[in-house]
From TrEMBL:
Pfam families to which the protein is assigned, alphabetical: CYTH (PF01928)
Highest rank taxon of the organism: Bacteria
Protein name: Adenylate cyclase
CDD domains: CYTH-like_CthTTM-like_1
PANTHER family for this protein: SLR0698 PROTEIN (PTHR40114:SF1)
Species name: Salinisphaera hydrothermalis (strain C41B8)
Length: 159
């Protein structure tokens, strides 16, 4: 089974921007809301994938990804997704032997900025950069699937 192990954090400030060595625009839309797994189509620049991810909260969950033609991905995003696409720019930042993925959301999820780190094991140690805020790994509201159905801009002030 393909297993993804990652932890998610809020980002504080803009200090990470100077260290970003690459970026890419993403648009992704969801084709189901079963509660067991998410099925999404994602466009990353000029590449597209179909992705299946277990609807499990936490640092580890099953994930499968398959390349699909870009034109078909655009058609799916335009015609078959349950909600408007989640759009963001992903930045990659190297820090202390790890690569962080920082997602800066646009549209209905702005001004949310989230950092993720992929790990080899759930208990792997890593150095926290100064711009890392609160951990949100176990907060389902910050998962892209949840942001598609209830965007950050629609959260109540006490969320």
């Amino acid at each position: 089974m393909a297993l993804e192990i990652e932890r998610k954090f809020l980002v504080v400030g803009d200090a990470w921007r100077a260290a970003a060595h690459a970026s890419q625009r993403f648009a992704q839309g969801y084709l189901n809301d079963s509660g067991r797994a998410s099925v999404r189509v994602r466009i990353e620049g000029e590449q597209a994938n179909l992705n299946l991810k277990a609807a499990q909260v936490g640092a580890s969950r099953a994930e499968y990804e398959y390349p699909i033609p870009l034109a078909e991905a655009r058609e799916i995003l335009d015609n078959l997704t349950l909600t408007p696409p989640v759009e963001k720019t992903r930045y990659w930042v190297k820090h202390a032997g790890h690569v962080w993925e920082i997602d800066e959301f646009v549209g209905a999820n702005a001004p949310l900025i989230v950092a993720e780190i992929e790990l080899d094991s759930a208990d792997e140690a890593f150095e926290r950069p100064d711009w890392l805020g609160a951990e949100i790994t176990d907060d389902v509201r910050y998962y892209n699937h949840a942001l598609a159905f209830l965007p950050y801009s629609q959260w109540s002030n006490d969320a």
